[in-house]
Amino acid sequence: MGLEFTTTKMADAIAWARKFSLFTYPFVTACCGMEYMSTAGPKYDVARFGAEFPRFSPRQADLLFIVGTITEKMGPVLSRIYQQMAEPKWVVAFGVCACTGGFYQNYNTMPGADQVVPVDVYIPGCPPRPEQVLDGLIMLQERIQKHEGHSQVRYREEQALANKQEALAQIRLPAAGK
Ligand code: SF4
Question: Which residue's CA is the closest to the ligand 1 atom numbered 4?
Fold first, then answer.
């Protein structure tokens, strides 16, 4: 009980640190990029939320901001960038194009970035206002604190599966020795 309490508190403290030290990889493809820059500028000052450092190497980033229209051709590139990012990681779809494909209804536009990568928070708007972006960021921070980010959930599931397999192996071992 004591150990469980300590590890839970430790996990909460780590989540708190993570939500205020996000390193963003901006995958910017279209006009939403202007609004992304506005959010980072002094008026809206995303630094107040601990997410001011863009990293242009996915290996140094844990928050993927998908900003703008995603075409089918870009899909494999976006997926590769996601896979190269550090764990645990989070993904935000910025603007209606990244969320759903927006008003583009043609063969080459992807109907939402979640066709190739998991998305934690969707920010609507064409483009979204900086206030909406900050609202989405706060929403993401709440998810991180509650351990509800998609990669946090995946990690828990993998751990549970590994524990189950280990327990099963322990049960089978004496039987194999007979
Ligand atoms: S949502 Fe609107 S502003 Fe953003 S990339 Fe699409 S068309 Fe451009």
Answer: 32
Contacts of residue 84, Cβ cutoff 8 Å, sequence gap at least 6 = 58, 59
CATH of the domain at 46: 3.40.50.12280
Q: Is residue 154 part of a domain?
A: no
Question: pLDDT tens across 120-169, in order?
Answer: 999 999 999 999 999 999 999 999 999 999 989 999 899 999 999 988 88
DSSP 8-state assignment for residue 111: S
Please give the structure tokens belonging to residue 10.
């430790």
Residue 137 lies in a domain: yes
The predicted model scores a pTM of 0.88
- Tell me which residue range forms the domain holding 117: 14-148
**What DSSP string describes 65-108?**
EEES--BGGGHHHHHHHHHHSPSS-EEEEESHHHHH-TT--STT
Task: Specify the residue with its C-alpha closest to ligand 1, atom 5.
Answer: 68
Ligand 1 atom with the smallest distance to the CA of 31 is 8
What the block records as the tokens of 175 is 């039987």
The answer to whether position 167 is within a domain reads no
